[in-house]
């Protein structure tokens, strides 16, 4: 059998056909964190959020580099259990970007909404009062793929 025959046979083999459904990926509700954003909009949101707590320009630039694969979460419903986040305390004179952790729960109490975090490297859990922090959620590979696809479709 020569190369052309092998290639033609491979084209006819249904087990080698692409079964990826792009429409299903775009509609999948599990990935609601990046439905209409663009990379530029995500960056603008991060910069705007950092400016809102009066950080100096050097610190904003430093944090933007560290938050390259993250999205600012302006609304509590945008947070996803199991995703990795980093945060800054709004009230700190010079807010320090956290090492981060995984969201394990979102708790609604009389005193506010709290995000329960598991910090993996130190086996420690903490609770953040949502309104007291700027929260940045890591973009998954699926989120990045959706961004690439939707950005490509709109340009």
From TrEMBL:
Name of the molecule in the record: Uncharacterized protein
């Amino acid at each position: 059998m020569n190369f052309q025959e092998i290639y033609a046979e491979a084209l006819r083999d249904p087990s080698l056909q692409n079964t990826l459904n792009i429409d299903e990926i775009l509609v999948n509700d599990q990935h609601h964190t990046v439905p209409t954003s663009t990379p530029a909009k995500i960056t603008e949101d991060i910069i705007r959020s950092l400016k809102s707590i009066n950080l100096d320009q050097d610190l904003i630039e430093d944090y933007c580099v560290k938050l390259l694969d993250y999205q600012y979460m302006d609304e509590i419903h945008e947070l996803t259990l199991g995703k990795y986040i980093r945060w800054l305390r709004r009230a700190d004179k010079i807010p320090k970007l956290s090492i981060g952790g995984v969201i394990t729960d979102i708790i609604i109490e009389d005193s506010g909404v709290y995000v329960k975090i598991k910090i993996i490297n130190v086996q420690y859990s903490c609770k953040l009062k949502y309104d007291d922090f700027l929260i940045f959620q890591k973009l998954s590979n699926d989120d990045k793929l959706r961004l690439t696809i939707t950005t490509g479709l709109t340009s």
